[in-house]
Protein backbone atom coordinates (compact mmCIF):
# COMPACT_ATOMS: atom_id res chain seq x y z
CA UNK A 1 0.00 0.00 0.00
CA UNK A 2 1.19 3.55 -0.70
CA UNK A 3 2.77 5.78 1.95
CA UNK A 4 0.00 8.37 1.63
CA UNK A 5 -3.78 8.21 1.44
CA UNK A 6 -5.56 8.51 -1.90
CA UNK A 7 -6.88 12.04 -1.40
CA UNK A 8 -3.41 13.37 -0.52
CA UNK A 9 -1.90 11.75 -3.59
CA UNK A 10 -4.69 13.08 -5.83
CA UNK A 11 -4.19 16.50 -4.40
CA UNK A 12 -0.43 16.52 -4.96
CA UNK A 13 -0.93 15.21 -8.48
CA UNK A 14 -3.47 17.91 -9.34
CA UNK A 15 -1.29 20.60 -7.86
CA UNK A 16 2.05 19.55 -9.33
CA UNK A 17 1.88 17.12 -12.27
CA UNK A 18 1.38 18.41 -15.80
CA UNK A 19 0.06 15.35 -17.64
CA UNK A 20 0.85 14.53 -21.28
CA UNK A 21 -1.77 15.12 -23.98
CA UNK A 22 -4.16 16.32 -21.27
CA UNK A 23 -6.32 19.43 -20.90
CA UNK A 24 -5.22 20.20 -17.38
CA UNK A 25 -8.27 22.35 -16.58
CA UNK A 26 -10.40 19.23 -16.97
CA UNK A 27 -7.89 17.10 -15.09
CA UNK A 28 -7.82 19.46 -12.10
CA UNK A 29 -11.57 18.98 -11.76
CA UNK A 30 -11.30 15.19 -11.91
CA UNK A 31 -10.66 12.51 -9.29
CA UNK A 32 -7.65 10.71 -10.79
CA UNK A 33 -7.23 6.99 -10.29
CA UNK A 34 -3.90 6.45 -8.49
CA UNK A 35 -2.19 3.27 -9.63
CA UNK A 36 0.02 1.68 -7.01
CA UNK A 37 0.56 -1.92 -8.11
CA UNK A 38 0.69 -4.17 -11.13
CA UNK A 39 -0.01 -7.88 -11.27
CA UNK A 40 0.06 -9.81 -14.54
CA UNK A 41 -2.46 -8.20 -16.92
CA UNK A 42 -3.89 -6.08 -14.11
CA UNK A 43 -3.19 -2.71 -12.55
CA UNK A 44 -4.39 -1.93 -9.03
CA UNK A 45 -5.33 1.47 -7.63
CA UNK A 46 -4.76 2.96 -4.19
CA UNK A 47 -8.23 1.82 -3.10
CA UNK A 48 -7.61 -1.77 -4.14
CA UNK A 49 -9.68 -1.66 -7.37
CA UNK A 50 -8.28 -3.87 -10.13
CA UNK A 51 -8.38 -2.95 -13.82
CA UNK A 52 -7.45 -5.15 -16.71
CA UNK A 53 -4.73 -3.17 -18.48
CA UNK A 54 -6.17 -2.90 -21.98
CA UNK A 55 -3.41 -0.52 -23.12
CA UNK A 56 -0.43 -2.49 -21.79
CA UNK A 57 0.98 0.55 -19.97
CA UNK A 58 0.73 2.60 -23.15
CA UNK A 59 1.69 -0.15 -25.60
CA UNK A 60 4.78 -1.31 -23.76
CA UNK A 61 3.93 -4.27 -21.58
CA UNK A 62 4.66 -7.73 -22.92
CA UNK A 63 4.96 -10.36 -20.16
CA UNK A 64 2.54 -8.82 -17.66
CA UNK A 65 3.20 -6.40 -14.84
CA UNK A 66 5.79 -7.23 -12.19
CA UNK A 67 7.15 -10.39 -13.79
CA UNK A 68 9.35 -12.08 -11.23
CA UNK A 69 12.11 -12.98 -13.72
CA UNK A 70 12.45 -9.39 -14.96
CA UNK A 71 12.31 -8.00 -11.43
CA UNK A 72 15.16 -10.29 -10.46
CA UNK A 73 17.26 -9.31 -13.49
CA UNK A 74 16.76 -5.64 -12.65
CA UNK A 75 17.67 -6.16 -8.99
CA UNK A 76 20.79 -8.12 -9.92
CA UNK A 77 21.91 -5.44 -12.35
CA UNK A 78 21.32 -2.55 -9.98
CA UNK A 79 23.62 -4.23 -7.46
CA UNK A 80 26.39 -4.45 -10.10
CA UNK A 81 26.18 -1.28 -12.21
CA UNK A 82 23.39 1.26 -12.62
CA UNK A 83 24.92 3.34 -15.41
CA UNK A 84 28.20 4.31 -17.01
CA UNK A 85 28.38 5.77 -20.55
CA UNK A 86 28.85 4.67 -24.15
CA UNK A 87 31.07 7.72 -24.72
CA UNK A 88 34.54 6.16 -24.72
CA UNK A 89 33.32 2.98 -22.96
CA UNK A 90 30.98 0.12 -23.48
CA UNK A 91 29.18 -2.09 -20.97
CA UNK A 92 28.53 -5.81 -20.89
CA UNK A 93 24.72 -5.67 -21.03
CA UNK A 94 24.66 -3.20 -23.93
CA UNK A 95 27.07 -5.39 -25.90
CA UNK A 96 25.12 -8.60 -25.33
CA UNK A 97 21.80 -6.93 -26.13
CA UNK A 98 23.16 -5.41 -29.36
CA UNK A 99 24.30 -8.84 -30.50
CA UNK A 100 20.93 -10.38 -29.69
CA UNK A 101 18.99 -7.58 -31.39
CA UNK A 102 21.09 -8.05 -34.52
CA UNK A 103 20.23 -11.77 -34.40
CA UNK A 104 16.46 -11.42 -33.98
CA UNK A 105 15.66 -8.42 -36.18
CA UNK A 106 15.22 -8.88 -39.96
CA UNK A 107 18.39 -10.15 -41.55
CA UNK A 108 20.78 -7.38 -42.58
CA UNK A 109 20.20 -5.06 -39.63
CA UNK A 110 23.45 -5.41 -37.74
CA UNK A 111 24.34 -2.09 -36.07
CA UNK A 112 22.57 -0.84 -32.97
CA UNK A 113 22.44 2.80 -31.91
CA UNK A 114 20.92 3.14 -28.43
CA UNK A 115 18.76 5.94 -27.08
CA UNK A 116 15.96 6.08 -24.54
CA UNK A 117 12.50 6.53 -26.06
CA UNK A 118 10.53 6.01 -29.23
CA UNK A 119 10.81 9.60 -30.45
CA UNK A 120 14.59 9.60 -30.17
CA UNK A 121 14.78 6.21 -31.89
CA UNK A 122 12.97 7.71 -34.90
CA UNK A 123 14.83 11.01 -34.74
CA UNK A 124 18.13 9.11 -34.82
CA UNK A 125 16.93 7.21 -37.90
CA UNK A 126 15.93 10.41 -39.68
CA UNK A 127 19.26 12.09 -38.93
CA UNK A 128 21.18 8.98 -40.00
CA UNK A 129 19.35 8.86 -43.33
CA UNK A 130 19.92 12.58 -43.92
CA UNK A 131 23.63 12.38 -43.19
CA UNK A 132 24.01 9.11 -45.12
CA UNK A 133 23.32 10.82 -48.46
CA UNK A 134 25.77 13.62 -47.68
CA UNK A 135 28.50 11.01 -47.28
CA UNK A 136 27.34 9.30 -50.45
CA UNK A 137 27.90 12.55 -52.36
CA UNK A 138 24.17 13.14 -52.93
CA UNK A 139 23.29 15.96 -50.50
CA UNK A 140 20.29 16.90 -52.66
CA UNK A 141 18.63 13.77 -51.30
CA UNK A 142 17.47 15.54 -48.15
CA UNK A 143 13.69 15.26 -47.95
CA UNK A 144 11.46 12.69 -46.24
CA UNK A 145 8.26 10.95 -47.24
CA UNK A 146 5.86 10.10 -44.44
CA UNK A 147 2.20 9.13 -44.28
CA UNK A 148 -0.97 10.97 -43.42
CA UNK A 149 -2.04 10.12 -39.83
CA UNK A 150 1.48 8.93 -39.04
CA UNK A 151 2.78 9.23 -35.49
CA UNK A 152 6.46 8.91 -34.72
CA UNK A 153 6.77 10.77 -31.42
CA UNK A 154 6.94 14.27 -30.02
CA UNK A 155 10.47 15.60 -30.45
CA UNK A 156 10.63 18.08 -33.32
CA UNK A 157 12.20 15.73 -35.86
CA UNK A 158 9.74 12.98 -35.02
CA UNK A 159 6.86 15.46 -35.20
CA UNK A 160 8.10 16.67 -38.60
CA UNK A 161 7.61 13.20 -40.07
CA UNK A 162 4.25 12.83 -38.30
CA UNK A 163 0.89 13.48 -39.88
CA UNK A 164 -1.68 14.07 -37.12
CA UNK A 165 -2.66 17.69 -37.33
CA UNK A 166 -4.40 17.71 -33.95
CA UNK A 167 -1.07 17.00 -32.26
CA UNK A 168 1.31 18.68 -34.65
CA UNK A 169 -0.53 21.63 -36.23
CA UNK A 170 0.47 24.19 -33.63
CA UNK A 171 4.17 23.36 -34.02
CA UNK A 172 4.19 23.61 -37.84
CA UNK A 173 6.45 26.70 -37.91
CA UNK A 174 9.12 24.77 -36.00
CA UNK A 175 9.12 21.72 -38.25
CA UNK A 176 10.93 20.74 -41.44
CA UNK A 177 8.51 20.16 -44.31
CA UNK A 178 7.95 16.59 -45.46
CA UNK A 179 6.21 14.99 -48.40
CA UNK A 180 3.01 13.26 -47.33
CA UNK A 181 1.70 10.10 -48.92
CA UNK A 182 -1.81 8.79 -48.33
CA UNK A 183 -2.08 6.17 -45.58
CA UNK A 184 -3.92 3.00 -46.61
CA UNK A 185 -6.86 3.67 -44.30
CA UNK A 186 -9.20 1.25 -45.99
CA UNK A 187 -12.31 2.08 -43.94
CA UNK A 188 -11.99 5.68 -45.15
CA UNK A 189 -10.02 5.07 -48.31
CA UNK A 190 -8.01 8.17 -49.29
CA UNK A 191 -8.30 7.15 -52.94
CA UNK A 192 -12.09 6.93 -52.67
CA UNK A 193 -12.12 3.17 -53.26
CA UNK A 194 -13.46 0.20 -51.34
CA UNK A 195 -11.56 -2.85 -50.14
CA UNK A 196 -7.90 -3.51 -51.09
CA UNK A 197 -9.08 -6.38 -53.28
CA UNK A 198 -11.23 -3.98 -55.26
CA UNK A 199 -8.68 -1.18 -55.62
CA UNK A 200 -5.45 -3.11 -56.24
CA UNK A 201 -3.80 -0.85 -53.65
CA UNK A 202 -4.01 2.38 -55.56
CA UNK A 203 -2.33 4.13 -52.64
CA UNK A 204 0.89 2.32 -53.58
CA UNK A 205 0.61 3.63 -57.13
CA UNK A 206 0.06 7.09 -55.67
CA UNK A 207 3.18 6.66 -53.52
CA UNK A 208 5.15 5.81 -56.62
CA UNK A 209 3.81 8.92 -58.39
CA UNK A 210 4.95 10.97 -55.39
CA UNK A 211 8.42 9.40 -55.51
CA UNK A 212 8.68 10.10 -59.22
CA UNK A 213 7.67 13.71 -58.83
CA UNK A 214 10.40 14.17 -56.21
CA UNK A 215 13.01 12.07 -57.99
CA UNK A 216 16.50 12.60 -56.61
CA UNK A 217 15.29 14.67 -53.63
CA UNK A 218 14.21 12.02 -51.14
CA UNK A 219 16.56 10.72 -48.43
CA UNK A 220 14.15 8.43 -46.63
CA UNK A 221 10.63 7.20 -46.14
CA UNK A 222 9.34 6.72 -42.61
CA UNK A 223 6.63 4.16 -41.98
CA UNK A 224 4.90 2.41 -39.09
CA UNK A 225 4.86 -1.14 -40.46
CA UNK A 226 1.53 -3.03 -40.62
CA UNK A 227 -0.31 -0.75 -38.17
CA UNK A 228 -0.34 3.05 -37.92
CA UNK A 229 -0.81 3.35 -34.17
CA UNK A 230 -1.77 6.74 -32.78
CA UNK A 231 -3.38 7.70 -36.10
CA UNK A 232 -6.18 5.26 -35.19
CA UNK A 233 -4.68 1.76 -35.35
CA UNK A 234 -4.95 1.80 -39.12
CA UNK A 235 -4.17 -1.72 -40.31
CA UNK A 236 -2.40 -1.85 -43.66
CA UNK A 237 -3.59 -4.35 -46.27
CA UNK A 238 -1.38 -7.39 -46.73
CA UNK A 239 1.42 -6.68 -49.19
CA UNK A 240 1.40 -2.90 -48.67
CA UNK A 241 4.61 -2.90 -46.64
CA UNK A 242 6.33 -5.16 -49.15
CA UNK A 243 5.20 -2.81 -51.91
CA UNK A 244 6.66 0.17 -50.05
CA UNK A 245 9.99 -1.67 -49.69
CA UNK A 246 10.04 -2.38 -53.44
CA UNK A 247 9.33 1.26 -54.25
CA UNK A 248 12.07 2.45 -51.89
CA UNK A 249 14.50 0.06 -53.62
CA UNK A 250 13.46 1.20 -57.09
CA UNK A 251 13.91 4.88 -56.19
CA UNK A 252 16.96 4.40 -53.95
CA UNK A 253 15.26 5.82 -50.87
CA UNK A 254 16.18 4.61 -47.38
CA UNK A 255 13.28 2.89 -45.67
CA UNK A 256 12.96 3.74 -41.97
CA UNK A 257 10.62 1.32 -40.21
CA UNK A 258 9.25 2.65 -36.95
CA UNK A 259 8.51 -0.52 -34.96
CA UNK A 260 8.32 1.38 -31.68
CA UNK A 261 4.71 0.25 -31.13
CA UNK A 262 4.52 -2.96 -33.16
CA UNK A 263 7.93 -4.50 -32.44
CA UNK A 264 8.42 -7.38 -29.98
CA UNK A 265 5.54 -9.65 -30.86
CA UNK A 266 2.60 -7.29 -31.11
CA UNK A 267 1.54 -8.29 -34.63
CA UNK A 268 2.02 -12.00 -33.94
CA UNK A 269 5.59 -12.05 -35.29
CA UNK A 270 8.60 -10.73 -33.40
CA UNK A 271 8.76 -7.78 -35.83
CA UNK A 272 6.13 -6.49 -38.23
CA UNK A 273 8.69 -6.22 -41.05
CA UNK A 274 9.38 -9.95 -40.58
CA UNK A 275 5.75 -10.73 -41.32
CA UNK A 276 6.17 -9.31 -44.81
CA UNK A 277 9.66 -10.72 -45.22
CA UNK A 278 11.36 -7.36 -45.64
CA UNK A 279 14.40 -5.65 -44.14
CA UNK A 280 14.25 -1.89 -43.77
CA UNK A 281 17.47 0.12 -44.02
CA UNK A 282 16.86 1.56 -40.56
CA UNK A 283 14.56 0.29 -37.81
CA UNK A 284 13.42 2.13 -34.68
CA UNK A 285 12.58 0.12 -31.54
CA UNK A 286 11.45 1.10 -28.04
CA UNK A 287 8.37 0.43 -25.84
CA UNK A 288 8.28 -3.41 -25.86
CA UNK A 289 12.08 -3.63 -25.97
CA UNK A 290 12.11 -3.68 -22.15
CA UNK A 291 8.64 -5.26 -21.93
CA UNK A 292 7.46 -1.95 -20.49
CA UNK A 293 9.95 -1.74 -17.62
CA UNK A 294 12.54 0.86 -18.51
CA UNK A 295 13.03 3.71 -20.98
CA UNK A 296 15.29 2.24 -23.65
CA UNK A 297 15.36 2.50 -27.43
CA UNK A 298 17.45 1.23 -30.28
CA UNK A 299 17.85 2.33 -33.88
CA UNK A 300 19.20 -0.46 -36.03
CA UNK A 301 20.96 0.08 -39.34
CA UNK A 302 22.32 -2.05 -42.14
CA UNK A 303 26.02 -2.39 -42.92
CA UNK A 304 25.51 -0.16 -45.98
CA UNK A 305 24.16 2.72 -43.88
CA UNK A 306 26.84 2.27 -41.21
CA UNK A 307 29.73 2.04 -43.67
CA UNK A 308 28.90 5.46 -45.11
CA UNK A 309 29.86 6.98 -41.75
CA UNK A 310 33.35 5.43 -41.63
CA UNK A 311 36.40 7.55 -42.38
CA UNK A 312 39.21 9.57 -40.87
CA UNK A 313 38.03 11.90 -38.10
CA UNK A 314 38.93 14.96 -40.20
CA UNK A 315 36.53 13.82 -42.93
CA UNK A 316 33.71 14.71 -40.50
CA UNK A 317 31.72 11.58 -41.15
CA UNK A 318 31.09 10.94 -37.45
CA UNK A 319 27.44 10.64 -36.42
CA UNK A 320 27.29 13.49 -33.93
CA UNK A 321 24.34 12.35 -31.87
CA UNK A 322 23.98 10.80 -28.42
CA UNK A 323 22.02 10.83 -25.18
CA UNK A 324 23.19 10.66 -21.58
CA UNK A 325 21.44 7.37 -20.85
CA UNK A 326 22.45 5.70 -24.10
CA UNK A 327 22.95 1.96 -23.54
CA UNK A 328 21.89 2.16 -19.90
CA UNK A 329 22.78 -1.21 -18.30
CA UNK A 330 19.57 -1.41 -16.26
CA UNK A 331 17.47 -1.03 -19.41
CA UNK A 332 19.67 -3.46 -21.34
CA UNK A 333 19.57 -6.06 -18.53
CA UNK A 334 15.80 -5.89 -18.45
CA UNK A 335 15.61 -6.14 -22.26
CA UNK A 336 17.75 -9.28 -22.12
CA UNK A 337 15.52 -10.78 -19.41
CA UNK A 338 12.51 -10.03 -21.60
CA UNK A 339 14.09 -11.77 -24.61
CA UNK A 340 14.77 -14.78 -22.38
CA UNK A 341 11.11 -14.83 -21.39
CA UNK A 342 10.03 -14.76 -25.05
CA UNK A 343 11.90 -18.07 -25.32
CA UNK A 344 11.13 -19.74 -21.99
CA UNK A 345 7.43 -18.79 -22.11
CA UNK A 346 7.27 -19.73 -25.82
CA UNK A 347 5.31 -16.50 -26.08
CA UNK A 348 5.16 -16.21 -29.86
CA UNK A 349 3.98 -19.82 -30.20
CA UNK A 350 1.13 -19.11 -27.81
CA UNK A 351 -0.04 -15.99 -29.61
CA UNK A 352 -2.10 -17.52 -32.46
CA UNK A 353 -4.62 -18.94 -29.96
CA UNK A 354 -4.99 -15.54 -28.30
CA UNK A 355 -5.16 -13.72 -31.62
CA UNK A 356 -7.98 -16.05 -32.74
CA UNK A 357 -9.79 -15.57 -29.47
CA UNK A 358 -9.57 -11.81 -29.88
CA UNK A 359 -10.83 -12.12 -33.45
CA UNK A 360 -13.77 -14.25 -32.38
CA UNK A 361 -14.70 -11.81 -29.61
CA UNK A 362 -14.43 -8.81 -31.92
CA UNK A 363 -17.06 -10.39 -34.18
CA UNK A 364 -19.55 -9.70 -31.40
CA UNK A 365 -18.77 -5.98 -31.52
CA UNK A 366 -19.44 -5.61 -35.24
CA UNK A 367 -23.15 -6.06 -34.51
CA UNK A 368 -23.34 -3.06 -32.17
CA UNK A 369 -25.24 -0.09 -33.52
CA UNK A 370 -22.51 2.54 -33.61
CA UNK A 371 -19.53 0.35 -34.46
CA UNK A 372 -18.38 1.40 -37.92
CA UNK A 373 -15.20 -0.61 -38.24
CA UNK A 374 -13.37 -3.26 -36.27
CA UNK A 375 -9.76 -3.86 -37.28
CA UNK A 376 -7.15 -6.22 -35.92
CA UNK A 377 -3.56 -7.12 -36.57
CA UNK A 378 -2.23 -9.77 -34.22
CA UNK A 379 -2.70 -8.61 -30.65
CA UNK A 380 -3.72 -5.06 -31.50
CA UNK A 381 -7.27 -4.14 -32.38
CA UNK A 382 -9.36 -1.02 -32.80
CA UNK A 383 -13.07 -0.29 -32.77
CA UNK A 384 -14.08 2.83 -34.69
CA UNK A 385 -17.33 4.32 -33.42
CA UNK A 386 -19.50 6.32 -35.82
CA UNK A 387 -22.72 8.25 -35.55
CA UNK A 388 -24.07 6.60 -38.70
CA UNK A 389 -22.86 3.25 -39.98
CA UNK A 390 -24.35 3.72 -43.44
CA UNK A 391 -22.65 7.05 -44.15
CA UNK A 392 -19.66 6.49 -41.80
CA UNK A 393 -20.38 9.93 -40.34
CA UNK A 394 -18.13 10.26 -37.29
CA UNK A 395 -19.28 11.41 -33.89
CA UNK A 396 -18.39 15.06 -33.39
CA UNK A 397 -15.13 15.57 -31.56
CA UNK A 398 -16.79 17.52 -28.73
CA UNK A 399 -19.07 14.58 -27.95
CA UNK A 400 -16.05 12.74 -26.51
CA UNK A 401 -17.67 9.41 -27.26
CA UNK A 402 -14.36 7.54 -27.11
CA UNK A 403 -13.48 9.11 -23.77
CA UNK A 404 -16.91 8.29 -22.34
CA UNK A 405 -16.74 4.66 -23.49
CA UNK A 406 -13.35 4.28 -21.81
CA UNK A 407 -14.63 5.92 -18.60
CA UNK A 408 -17.54 3.50 -18.59
CA UNK A 409 -15.18 0.57 -19.16
CA UNK A 410 -13.53 1.34 -15.82
CA UNK A 411 -16.79 0.50 -14.08
CA UNK A 412 -16.47 -2.94 -15.68
CA UNK A 413 -12.88 -3.34 -14.46
CA UNK A 414 -11.18 -2.56 -17.77
CA UNK A 415 -8.72 0.27 -18.44
CA UNK A 416 -8.76 1.54 -22.04
CA UNK A 417 -7.71 4.73 -23.84
CA UNK A 418 -9.33 6.14 -26.97
CA UNK A 419 -7.83 7.79 -30.00
CA UNK A 420 -10.73 10.14 -30.76
CA UNK A 421 -13.64 7.89 -31.74
CA UNK A 422 -11.40 4.85 -31.96
CA UNK A 423 -11.14 2.52 -28.96
CA UNK A 424 -7.79 0.77 -28.85
CA UNK A 425 -7.28 -2.78 -27.58
CA UNK A 426 -3.60 -3.36 -26.85
CA UNK A 427 -3.25 -5.70 -23.86
CA UNK A 428 -0.06 -7.28 -22.48
CA UNK A 429 0.87 -10.19 -24.75
CA UNK A 430 0.79 -12.44 -21.69
CA UNK A 431 -2.97 -11.89 -21.35
CA UNK A 432 -4.93 -15.13 -21.00
CA UNK A 433 -7.88 -16.12 -23.21
CA UNK A 434 -10.20 -15.73 -20.20
CA UNK A 435 -8.92 -12.18 -19.72
CA UNK A 436 -9.54 -11.46 -23.41
CA UNK A 437 -13.17 -12.47 -22.79
CA UNK A 438 -13.33 -10.12 -19.81
CA UNK A 439 -11.77 -7.24 -21.72
CA UNK A 440 -13.96 -7.40 -24.82
CA UNK A 441 -17.13 -8.09 -22.80
CA UNK A 442 -16.40 -5.01 -20.69
CA UNK A 443 -15.87 -2.95 -23.82
CA UNK A 444 -19.10 -4.23 -25.42
CA UNK A 445 -21.14 -3.30 -22.33
CA UNK A 446 -19.54 0.14 -22.31
CA UNK A 447 -20.26 0.79 -25.98
CA UNK A 448 -23.87 -0.27 -25.46
CA UNK A 449 -24.28 2.05 -22.48
CA UNK A 450 -22.67 5.11 -24.01
CA UNK A 451 -23.86 4.98 -27.62
N1 LIG B 1 6.67 5.75 -32.85
C1 LIG B 1 5.50 5.12 -32.67
C2 LIG B 1 4.98 4.24 -33.76
C3 LIG B 1 4.76 5.29 -31.50
O1 LIG B 1 3.59 4.68 -31.36
C4 LIG B 1 5.30 6.13 -30.50
C5 LIG B 1 4.56 6.35 -29.24
O2 LIG B 1 3.42 6.00 -29.08
C6 LIG B 1 6.52 6.76 -30.71
C7 LIG B 1 7.19 6.56 -31.90
C8 LIG B 1 7.10 7.69 -29.69
O3 LIG B 1 7.56 6.98 -28.59
P1 LIG B 1 7.85 7.74 -27.19
O4 LIG B 1 6.51 8.14 -26.66
O5 LIG B 1 8.53 6.71 -26.36
O6 LIG B 1 8.71 8.90 -27.50
CATH homology group of the largest domain: Type I PLP-dependent aspartate aminotransferase-like (Major domain)
Strand order of the largest sheet: 4-12-11-10-7-5-6
What is bound: which ligands? pyridoxal-5'-phosphate
Shape: globular
Question: What is this structure, in a nutshell?
Answer:
It comes from Geobacter soli. This protein is an alpha/beta fold and 451 residues long. Helices cover 39% and strands 18% of the residues.
Characterize the structure shown.
- Belongs to the class-III pyridoxal-phosphate-dependent aminotransferase family. BioA subfamily.
- Its cofactor is pyridoxal 5'-phosphate.
- The record marks 21 as: Participates in the substrate recognition with KAPA and in a stacking interaction with the adenine ring of SAM.
- This is Adenosylmethionine-8-amino-7-oxononanoate aminotransferase.
- Catalyzes the transfer of the alpha-amino group from S-adenosyl-L-methionine (SAM) to 7-keto-8-aminopelargonic acid (KAPA) to form 7,8-diaminopelargonic acid (DAPA). It is the only aminotransferase known to utilize SAM as an amino donor.
- The structure is a single chain.
- This protein has 451 residues and is an alpha/beta fold.
- The chain has two domains: 33-63 and 346-450, Aspartate Aminotransferase, domain 1, CATH 3.90.1150; 71-344, Type I PLP-dependent aspartate aminotransferase-like (Major domain) (Aspartate Aminotransferase, domain 2).
- Helix content is 39%, strand content 18%.
- The chain has 17 helices and 18 strands.
- The chain has helices at residues 6-16, 24-28, 56-59, 68-80, 92-104, 118-135, 156-160, 165-168, 196-199, 202-213, 240-250, 272-275, 303-307, 329-344, 347-366, 401-411, 433-450, and strands at 35-39, 42-45, 50-53, 109-115, 143-147, 179-181, 218-223, 227-228, 234-235, 254-258, 282-285, 297-302, 371-377, 380-388, 393-394, 414-415, 418-419, 422-425.
- The strands form four sheets. It has a seven-stranded mixed β-sheet, with helices on both faces.
- α12 (272-275) links the parallel β10 (254-258) and β11.
- α5 packs across α14, α10 packs parallel to α11 and α16 packs across α17.
- It is globular.
- The mean pLDDT is 97.
- Pyridoxal-5'-phosphate is lined by residues 117-119, 122, 151-153, 224, 229-230, 258, 260-261, 286.
- Pyridoxal-5'-phosphate (PLP) is lined by residues 117-119, 122, 151-153, 224, 229-230, 258, 260-261, 286.
Amino acid sequence: MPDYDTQTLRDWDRRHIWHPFTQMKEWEESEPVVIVEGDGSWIVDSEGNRYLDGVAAIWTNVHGHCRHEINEALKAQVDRLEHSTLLGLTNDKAAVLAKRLAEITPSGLCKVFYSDNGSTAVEVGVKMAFQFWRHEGQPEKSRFISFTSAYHGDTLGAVSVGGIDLFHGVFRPLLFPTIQAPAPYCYRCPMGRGTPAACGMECLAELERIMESHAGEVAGLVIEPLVQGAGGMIVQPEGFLRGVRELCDRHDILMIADEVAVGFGRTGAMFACGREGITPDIMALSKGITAGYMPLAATLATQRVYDAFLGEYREMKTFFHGHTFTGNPLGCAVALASLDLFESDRLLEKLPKKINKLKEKLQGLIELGHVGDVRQCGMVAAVELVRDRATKEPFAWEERVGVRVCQEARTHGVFLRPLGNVIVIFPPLAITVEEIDFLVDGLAKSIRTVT
